[in-house]
Amino acid sequence: MRINNNISALRANTNLSRVDRRLDKSTQKLSSGQKINHAADDAAGFSISKRMRTQIHSLERASQNAADGISVIQTAEGALNEVSAILVRVKELTVQSANDTFSGDDRDAIQKEVDQLLAEVNRISTDTDFNQNTLLNGEVGRRSVTKNTGVEVIRSTEIVPDGKYKLTVEEDPKKAVYTGGSVNGADFGENSKVQGRVIINGEVVDIKPGDSAETVLNKLRTGAERAGISLAGNGGGPDANGEEVYGGYTAEALDEGIELLFVTKEYGSKAKIDIKIEGTATKDEDGNTVSAEDNADKLAAALGLPRKVDPAPRGKDAKVTLDEGFEKTATVNVDGDKVVIKDRDGFELELKVNDYTTENDKGGEVELTVFDAGYMTLQVGANTGESFDVSIDRIDTETLGLSKINLRSSKEAENAIEMVDKAITMVSAERAKLGAYQNRLEHTILSLDETTEDMTSAFSRIVDTDMAEEMTEFTQQKVLSQAGTSVLAQANERPNTILTLLQS
């Protein structure tokens, strides 16, 4: 029997300390609800759980990103819905204007409404944004640029590979131009008997006896506008520094004695200036009949114009050949100043060629670059590369082909019907693409949420405390702790028996 070292008490104390440590861990697990509170609890599980926790949070953020992407698409699609409604109204007005039951003044009123509607289309294009990201002006799409001042890239489809492309503008687009004639006060005025009709591209301008020179000029200008022609005084030209609106000519104020300058608003072979002068039979002061031909000749002489401009001046389409970067299967379609290059699988590149390109751009050699950039990239996954690009085409009157729509004559309105139909089809196609994006994102969100749920379940099995199992462990350790405390107390009492031995 020893009193310096109570081995029984030491053993009881050691076991009690072990039980207390297990009881502390069990208490922490029960109170925190986590199986792993320190790396020492489960080193491998701790490392795995941290990666899984990061992945879960990233998936949750990716799901929110996809939801934000849907909001962007809905914003753009909502704006395009208004554009569609505007185009439906424009189509209605176009059909209305094509009906010859309406007068020129009626069509002028129709044109004013159409101008305002199309101005709103352009406003929607520039002002529709999401968190300061403009959506419909082409910024959320392929970047296609050229340094050549004479060529503008209107749009390129997603199929167009990024890289450099070269083409040559062999001939510039031209507007139809006619110069000649003038209006002099000596031939018109209160006592003038000159009368007849000037027909400009089918638009009739009635000149009545007594019309002043100013009245005649205003009538000619109004008639020309209705026929899709700009009328001004001829200040000379054409030259590379001339005004684009007037086909390179320098325009002067439309005034008495100034040579007239007729210029179509459109480029290309379809643009023409057809002017003819007609008269009607009348009676003079003596009751004698003045034939329609004589009245027409007098009006033509007063205006300094031929009875019929023959041949009617026509514009020219640009002439473009493809060089580097384009496949042999690519085709070029030119309509005035618009150049559309198409190839297989939806390859489409639309350019606008300005007048005097051959003079300004080294003989017409044009180099353009298509960048694989500009898209709105949505990060819809937790890892690198788990994203997809959203492309929203530029939608305005230029890309829709409606920038110069003219409803001031029935013939022009008839041509405009097809133009508006194409614009409606283009907007509908863009909305369909956005709808497809939205459907994809909705499925993406469902997939991400399902993955997050499954991963959270796996994460829970690693780190969450099984309360029933841990409560059993806690109870066991608590009983052992109480038993150990009791045994330790008894072990500490054992040396007292030595006193009995000493006393005896």
Automatic annotation (TrEMBL):
Keywords: Bacterial flagellum, Cell projection, Cilium, Flagellum, Secreted
Keyword Methyltransferase: no
UniProt domain Flagellin C-terminal: residue ranges: 417-502
Entry-linked InterPro entries: Flagellin, Flagellin_C, Flagellin_C_sub2, Flagellin_N
Major place of residence: secreted
Keyword Secreted tagged: yes
Localization annotation: Secreted; Bacterial flagellum
Matching Pfam families: Flagellin_C, Flagellin_N
Domain Flagellin N-terminal as annotated: residue spans: 3-138
Family: Belongs to the bacterial flagellin family.
General function of this protein: Flagellin is the subunit protein which polymerizes to form the filaments of bacterial flagella.
Record's protein name: Flagellin
Source organism (scientific name): Catonella massiliensis
